Amino acid sequence: MDPISKLSELFAEFPGIGERQAKRFAYYLLRKPSGFRKELALQLAELGDRIAQCVDCKRFFEKTTTDLCETCRNMNTDKSVLMIIEKDTDYDVVRKSRSYNGAYFVLGGMIPILEKQPSYVRTGELLERIKKDTESGVLKEIILAFSLNTQGDHTDSELRRILEPTVVGKDIRMTSLGRGLSTGTELEYSDSKTLEYALKNRQ
Amino acid sequence: MDPISKLSELFAEFPGIGERQAKRFAYYLLRKPSGFRKELALQLAELGDRIAQCVDCKRFFEKTTTDLCETCRNMNTDKSVLMIIEKDTDYDVVRKSRSYNGAYFVLGGMIPILEKQPSYVRTGELLERIKKDTESGVLKEIILAFSLNTQGDHTDSELRRILEPTVVGKDIRMTSLGRGLSTGTELEYSDSKTLEYALKNRQ
Amino acid sequence: MDPISKLSELFAEFPGIGERQAKRFAYYLLRKPSGFRKELALQLAELGDRIAQCVDCKRFFEKTTTDLCETCRNMNTDKSVLMIIEKDTDYDVVRKSRSYNGAYFVLGGMIPILEKQPSYVRTGELLERIKKDTESGVLKEIILAFSLNTQGDHTDSELRRILEPTVVGKDIRMTSLGRGLSTGTELEYSDSKTLEYALKNRQ
Amino acid sequence: MDPISKLSELFAEFPGIGERQAKRFAYYLLRKPSGFRKELALQLAELGDRIAQCVDCKRFFEKTTTDLCETCRNMNTDKSVLMIIEKDTDYDVVRKSRSYNGAYFVLGGMIPILEKQPSYVRTGELLERIKKDTESGVLKEIILAFSLNTQGDHTDSELRRILEPTVVGKDIRMTSLGRGLSTGTELEYSDSKTLEYALKNRQ
After folding, report:
1. Is D37 in contact with A25 (Cβ distance < 8 A)?
2. Pick from A181, A192, B102, D66: most CB atoms within 10 A?
3. Distance set, CA C57 to CA B201, C67, C91, C155, D79 (Å)
C-alpha cells in the first residue's frame, strides 16, 4: 500500500479522527516541507527514548537521572494528600488551577461498569502505593478526583470499596471533589443532584 | 396583512423563535382542527384572568382568595431562609430538586453590567421585602441563587452591595450557591475556578 | 390545571418545541402586556375566519370573493406548467426565487415508504386536477419538486407511477428538479450521486 | 522542551486540530506500543521517498519508473476533457463517483478574493498545460470543478478570465459543474440561486 493510504490508516486510529480527516492529515504532511515531517518523526522516536513513567505517580515525564517525576521529587509537594486522577491530561488541568499542592496518582483509566477491568487501570499499583504511604504514616487524605459521569461515579465508589480496608482506623480521610454549580452553569438547566450539592455547599 | 403573516410576526417575537419557525407555527395551526386554536385562544385569555402575581415572592400563581402563592401561604415553608432567583422557571427547577424548603423572591431578571437596570428587575421591591423580614426578625439567611455566568456574578455582587446596609449587624448570613463539579462535568474540561471550588468543597 | 401548565402543554405540541421551551413561552406571554395576548388570540380566531384553501392548488390564502388564490386567479400564471410541492412553505420559497411563473399544487405531505398513506396527502385530488388540465389540453409539463431525501425520492417515483396512465400519449412531460451542487456544497464532501448529476448538468 | 510538548505543538499545526486534542494525540502515542510510533515515523519518511508529484496533473502519486500518475499514463483516460480541481482529495471524490473518465489538473488551492495569490496555487502551470493541450489540438473541454462557495465562485470566474485568451477561437468549451438540489437538500431550506438552477436543469 502507498504511504499516503498507510499514513491515513495510522492517523485514523488517533482518538476522534475519522477516515476523511486522517486522509487530510496525510495530504497536509505531503504539502509541508520535508523538514516538518523529519521533525515529527524525530519527536516520535524521542517519545520512547526521553519519556519515562514516574514509579510513584505513574505520570509520563521527561527522563532524568532519577525515576521520579518533578512533582514526586519536589520537597514542597504536600505528601499528606494524594489525589487520584484518571489520566495525565487531568494532572495538567489541576496544576493549571494552582489550587492543589499535594501528590498525585494516575490511575490510567476509569473502572468499567460492566466489562472486566482493563490491565491499564492500575488499581493494584494504587493499592501498593497507598499501603506504602500508610505505613510511612505520612498520608492523611486521599482525594478521588474523577469526572462527574456514571463511569466516574462508579470508579469513585469502587476505589472507596477497594481502599477502605487499608485506610480504616488509620485516620486517613477519603474525599471526593465538591459538587455544585460549575462555571457557565445556568440555574434553569441544572439537574436536581447538582442543585442539592450547590445548596449544601453554599457559602 | 393576512392572519398567517400576522401570526408569524407574533410568534417570531417568542424567545428563540426565528422567522422561518414562526411561519411553520402558523401553518401548523392552520392544519390543526379549529378546536385546538380555540383552546389556545381561551388559555391566552385565562392567563390574564386566572394568574396573579404573589405580593410576597412576585411569582406568578393561579389566583385564589388570597394574594399569596401556595409557598408563601404554606405554614411549613421555612421563612428564616430567603432564596433570591432570577425567574419563575428557576423556582420550578429548585422545587423539583426537593432540597430546599425556604422562601423565595423572584427578582424578575439579572442586573445588567453596562446598560441601565430595566424596570422589571425588582431590586427596590426586594429591598422592601428584606427590610420587612429583618424587622420581623424572622430572617436568618439570604441565598443568592443565580446562574454562574458574568451576568449572574454581577447580579450576585450588586445585590450583596445593595442589601449589606440592611442586614449588617442583624446576624443574617448572605450566601451564594456552592460551586464545584456539576453533573456531567469532565475533569479534563473544567476551568481553574471550578476546580478551585471543587477542591475547597471536597468531602 | 392552571393556564400556565395548560398553555405549556399546547405549545409543547408545536413542531420542534420541547416541554422546557413550551414553558418558557407561557412565562414569556405572562410578562408581555395583555394587549399582546389579546392580539395573538384574535389572530388565532382570524385564521379560521379569514383563511381559505384554494380549490385548485390547495394552498391556504386570504379569503376573497373567489375561492381561488391569487396565483391560480392570475392571468399571467403560466398554466401549461404545474409544479407539485409538498407544503405551503415550499410555495413561498419557490416564489422568493422568482425563477418560476407556472401553476402549483400542494400535495399536503410526502407519500410514506412503509406506513399507509395519510389522508392529508392529496394524491386523489391531484389526479383529478391533472385529468381536468389534461382534457382542457392546457397542460404541457408536470414538475415534481420534492426534497432530495428518501421520502422525497419515493414520493417522486410514486407520483410518476400514479400519473403515468393519465398523461401517456398526451405529450405532457413529467420532470423533476435538477440535481447538482447546491450553494455551499464543498466538492470534497459531495456524494457520488450529486457529482454524477453535477457533471451531467455542467454548463 | 520535552517531546510530549513538542509533539503537541506539531500536531496543533494539523488542519482542524486544537491544542487540547494535539496534547491528547501525544499521550495517545505514549500509551501505544513503540511499534506503532516506529511505523508512523517510517511512513513519514516514506512520504518523501516514495511519493512523487505528477508532472502533468500535479497530483501526488506513488513513484514509478515514469513521472506520470496512473491516470495521466492511462491510455483509456479521455484527454479531450480536462477537469480543474482544487486539491488531491477532490480527485479521490470524483473518481469514487465513477462518472468522469477525463484528465485532471490539481490547482493546489483556491484563488483568494482579497489577499495576493499564494505560490501554491498553480495558475501559471495550469496555463502552460492548457497551452500545450491546445496546440496538440486534443483538448475539447475544460471543466471548472470547485466548491460552491464565494472562494470557489471567485476561482471559477478568475480562471475563465485567465484561460479565455488561450482557448478563444479554438472550439474548446469551458464549463462549470451543474448546480441544483444536492442529495439531502430540503426544498424549504434551499436558496433562490439553487432553486433557479434546479428549475433550469430539471429533467
Report:
1. no
2. A181
3. 67, 11, 10, 18, 50
CA dist., res. D72 & res. D83, Å (int) = 12
For B97, the closest of A143, A186, A196 (CB atoms) is A196
Positions in chain A whose pLDDT score sits under 50: none
Q: Can you give the pLDDT at residue A195? A: 94
Which CATH number among 3.30.70.2740, 3.40.1360.10, 3.40.30.10, 3.40.50.2300 corresponds to the domain B67-200?
Answer: 3.40.1360.10
Chains touching chain A, criterion 3+ CB pairs below 8 Å = B, D
Q: Which of C143, C146, C148 sits opposite D202 (nearest CB)?
A: C143
Residue C49, C-alpha cell as written in the block? 375566519
Which residues lie closer than 8 Å to C148 by C-beta, 6 or more apart? C179, D181, D182, D183, D184, D185, D186
Instruction: Please say whether the beta carbons of B110 and B155 come within 8 A.
Output: yes
Q: Which residue has the cell 442583624?
A: B170
C196/chain D closest Cα distance in angstroms:
5
Give the angle B78-A196-B148 at the CA atoms, nearest 5°.
Answer: 105
- At B1 the pLDDT is 81
Q: Convert the pLDDT of each residue in C154-196 to its tens digit.
A: 999 999 999 999 999 899 999 999 999 999 999 998 999 999 9
Give the sign of the dihedral formed by CA C154, CA C160, CA C161, CA C162.
positive
User: Is B100 near chain A, with CB under 8 Å?
Assistant: yes
Calculate helix-pair angle for A19-31, A3-11, nearest 10 degrees.
Answer: 130
Which residues, 6+ apart, have CB-to-CB distance to C14 below 8 Å? B25, B28, C22
Q: Is the pLDDT at B18 greater than 90, yes or no? A: yes
Chain-centroid distance, C-alpha A1: 37
Q: Which CATH architecture has domain B3-52?
A: Orthogonal Bundle (1.10)
| pLDDT higher than 90, residue C41 | yes
pLDDT (tens digit per residue) in D69-112: 999 999 999 999 999 999 999 999 999 999 999 999 999 999 99
| Residue among B24, B16, D167 at smallest CA distance from B8 | B24
DSSP single-letter state for residue B118? P
Cross-chain Cβ contact C185/D87 below 8 Å: no
Hey, is D141 helix, strand or coil? strand
User: Does the beta-carbon distance from C87 to B29 stay under 8 Å?
Assistant: no
Residues of chain B with CATH 3.40.1360.10: 67-200
CA A187/CA A178 separation, integer angstroms = 18
Which percentage of chain D shows pLDDT scores above 90?
Answer: 86
Q: What is the interface pTM, i.e. ipTM, of the complex?
A: 0.86
pLDDT digits (tens, 9 = 90+) for B143-175: 999 999 999 999 999 999 999 999 998 999 999
C-alpha cell at C62: 386570504
**DSSP β-ladder status, A51-53 and A60-62:** antiparallel
